[in-house]
Amino acid sequence: MSHIFIYDANYRDIQTTVDTIFTQLEVDLQGRRVFIKPNAVHEMEPELAANTHPSLLAAVIRAVEDAGAADIRVGDNPGIQNYGRIPQLFRANGLGAVTGDYLENIGRGLIPKRIPSLGATDLYFPKIIFEADYIINLPKLKTHPNTGITSAIKNCFGYLAGGQKAYCHQISKDRRHFEHMLADIYHLRPPDLTLVDAILIPEGGGRSSKTLRYLGKVLASHSGVAVDVLGSSMLGLEPCSIYHLVAAAASEPVSVDVQALEIIGRWDVTEGFHLPRGFNPGESPVTTVSRPGLLEAATSKKLMVNNDRCTKCGECISECPTAALYFEDEILHMTQAQCVACFACMEACSQEALRLESLCPENKAASSTPTAKTR
């Protein structure tokens, strides 16, 4: 059984909390390659509590350095608004200031992997998560209108690059199927340590909520499933009603009954916490995304190349895991049938010459041409 520790914490003195966690959970990183996975998908300042707070990430980086890690990398894959902009995203949300040279663009260096819930369908993951000796997961505790909670397990959904996350939404049969994918992705490479930022969190609508609640807690465990059981219970949710939590627990010796867990520290159900509208544990809707056209835009294979910016360096071609891109007459083209919408090409382009046509109308200028071509 995994122990779960819960600490009273604040961002000002977070280093003391993190150092205590490393001691109590006996974190041994001497000579090891460490990958740190914050929740960094939104271009929002720390005060809005949409991402892992920079002070927590900074404290973890320092603790990992002090523990003698041989190599440290930090990364996350963003949502649709920030395809091809991982460094810019980290700068905008404050995490880049504490990450420094440790930032790894995990939208690049992709390899195919398969998960049980998708059978023979390949998904594309950064190889760094499989090369790391130790992964530290730093989710933000938030509610979600479709999955109830987004924390340790769902933070690993950010392993997937570019439009691959939207693709999973698109091909899911219903919410239950989608949440089985979340559990499978988590178990493809489970984090070795999870620290949940539950100090200041949004309530109601998750990251888009303008109502924040101060809980003043950090949760820690070697089991991401265990901390999600506790985290959901703290927000007044029944863990057994959260499909991805139940599915993930089936592969670990962890109960979804919070009373059966060994919890060190004080906790209680947060009084009057507003749950997201639309979340109904008894329903399993056909779609997992409600905004019309979002999935189609997020998985579009219609890339535009800005010819004024393109230097013909070929980085996008070398980065493509399916060899879908090629030059012909010094013009970049793409074989759409081979594109998997991972958008590693966009991450690789230092000139920002590649953009999705559906999301960037400014790239429809006379100097821009579509990449799609049949061959």
How many domains make up the 3D coordinates?
A: 2
* Main sheet properties: 7 strands, mixed
Indicate the radius of gyration in whole angstroms. 21 Å
Outline the low-pLDDT stretches.
361-366
Output the structural class.
alpha/beta
Question: Widest sheet: strand order?
Answer: 3-2-6-9-10-1-11
- Strand residue content: 15-25%
CATH topology of the largest domain: Rossmann fold
> In the CATH hierarchy, what is the superfamily of the largest domain?
LarA, N-terminal domain
Helix run count? 13
Total strand segments: 16
Mean pLDDT: 88
Give structural notes.
The structure is a single chain. This protein is α/β, with parallel strands linked by helices and 375 residues long. It has 2 domains: 262 residues, Rossmann fold (3-Layer(aba) Sandwich), CATH 3.40.50.11440; 70 residues, Alpha-Beta Plaits, CATH 3.30.70. 26% of the residues lie in helices and 20% in strands. The strands form 5 sheets. The protein has a 7-stranded mixed sheet with strand order 3-2-6-9-10-1-11. A 3-stranded antiparallel sheet has the order 15-12-16, with no helix packed on it. Strand 7 and strand 8 form a beta hairpin. Helix 1 packs across helix 2 and helix 8 packs across helix 10. The longest helix is centred in the middle third of the chain and has 14 residues. The radius of gyration is 21 Å and the shape is globular.
